[in-house]
Amino acid sequence: MLILGVETATRYTSVALVNGDHVLAEHTYSGPLRPSQVLMAMVDRVLRDAGVGRSDLQGVAVGCGPGSFTGLRLGLATAQALAYALGIPVVGVSTLETMSFPWLRTGCLVVPVLDAQRGRVYAAGFPRDPAGFVPRTVEWEALLDHLAARGSERATAGVARVILVGEWAWVRREEVASRLGEHAVVVEPHLGYPRAAAVAHLGRAALLAGSPGDPLALRAVYLRRSEAEELWEKRRSGTSSGCI
Amino acid sequence: MPPGRFVGARGPGCHGGLRALAGHREGWWMDGVKVLGVETSCDETACAVVEDGRHLLGNVVASQAKLHQRFGGVVPEIASRRHLEMLLPVLDQALAEAGVSLRDIEAVAVTPGPGLIGALLVGLAAAKALAWALDVPLVPVHHLEAHVYAAFLDYPHLEPPLLALVVSGGHTDFLWMPSHGCMELKGRSLDDAAGEAFDKVGRLLGLPYPGGPHVEALARDGQPTIPFPRAWLEGTLDFSFSGLKTAVAVYLRRHQEAYRAADVAASFQAAVAEVLAGKAARACSTLGATRLVLAGGVAANAAVRESVRSRCEEAGVELYVPRPALCTDNAAMVAAAGYFAWREGRRAGLDLNASPGLTLEAVGPG
Ligand SMILES: [Zn+2]
């Protein structure tokens, strides 16, 4: 199955063409041009590189979040329109799951971390965290507390260590070391960004598992409302300090 | 090709369009060319199919006005999210309404600006992907240019040269159009756009967002008895509406509860209509225009239309006003403008980016 993977949730714009377990072409960009300028040219390029025609594509997989709101919309609008026009299925793949993908078979708890603004992060535990940590928006401090407090619970379940993935954790790796010690490892950023090849692999698995892939039904996973809505809710419930 | 530049804005590029088409069609080269238009510059998600730049086949607009009402204005993040959710359903419906399949589409026209950056990006990303997947040209259309072309859908024999007055929430602009694919900005609002003034006065009067239609409805029960100021900015074709808005605010403050809101609305509306009509007549005589297109959301206001109509009659100027549904933001006008730009050879590369402050010159018609 020939799948196009598209990933734009972080500052890395990544596109890949995957056939079965084989990556035919992959291109990742994080330079000065805007993602919206480079994405379609990258799609065009991976097909040319692989010598594949657009009508040969059998499915599209796209990183559906969480991540940069604008980035998610760029990837989804592109992937959905491609799938709609080519008459092929499109599936959304969690950005956090994509980041954890290379480390899933290590026997460790993999915790991908993305910036969610104002000291908060999007994070999750993979494979399913025995201590019950599902994708959510959380204070960075609270995430460290959680990981520090539930270590023994995980050890009992046979999980030796925690692998933190993503630039956010890398920048704060000393903080991680002082809070979690040997229990935690932080992965270098160049190994930790969400790659389109992983998106395509996960998307292919979803399609083989029977996901219908309806382009009109796909939704972005923001995990956060707009600031205007958060502010409006606060004002209405009377707990606002006036402004944010 | 340097990023952000367009290929063949005019001139020799024209032949590229001719040749491209000769490949798949016999006989009349401009017969039955279906252009898909995509528009997401503010709070309307819109797709349309137009044939030969004149015949509206399918036109669907999903308005978000209700979604933004409680915030008293368009919230960009909420607008962008809704655009993404609505774009494919709106496209699907527009194609069904037109009775065509995507395979019948020969060019995709899209607005890269001006507008809200996050909102523009959704429509642009989808349009680029559609054009690439269908292997047809991508044609960039300036939002103001699109508003002018709305008139070509309702007046099949209309041709340039003409003068256009585009009046909306974001613009109050005079555009001189000597020929297809060419537009020149001749005057603009130096502060608030006319539609913005309507929205602000609506808010002052406690009316829900968007203020324009509510002010118009309220004005129907009032008399234009209050002499609000008219800024004529003599010697220029520019506008200013912030003084008028301030005058309304001062009047309301001074009279506290003792005013008739309907009279305030009617008086404010009369002031706007008189300035628009007077300046339009003056612009036609200055530029020697015999045809005037009145377009943009505020052109849907009956008092404004009537005022401009009577001044044009006096001045012997032919007036063209699209039906209200084509005055407010829609994609039919984008597809219409896109067809004529496509004929002139205007194309965008896959690196086309959204530009909130896009100038006419950057797209090609300027
Ligand atoms: Zn507009």
Give the structure's gist in a few sentences.
The complex is a heterodimer of chains A (244) and B (366). Chain A is of the alpha/beta class. Chain A has 10 helices and 10 strands.
Q: How would you sum up this structure, described in words?
A:
The complex is a heterodimer of chains A (244) and B (366). Chain A has helices spanning 35-50, 69-86, 95-100, 140-149, 151-156, 167-171, 173-180, 189-192, 196-208, 227-237; strands spanning 2-7, 13-19, 22-29, 59-65, 90-94, 109-115, 120-123, 136-139, 162-165, 184-186. Chain A is an alpha/beta fold. In chain A, strands 3-2-1-4-5 form a five-stranded mixed sheet, sandwiched between helices. Chain B is an alpha/beta fold and 366 residues long. In chain B, the strands form two sheets. Chain B has a five-stranded mixed sheet with strand order 3-2-1-4-5, with helices on both faces. Classes of the chains: A alpha/beta (244), B alpha/beta (366). At the A-B interface, helix 1, helix 2 and helix 10 of A face helix 3 and helix 4 of B. The site of zinc ion has 4 residues of chain B, from helix 5.
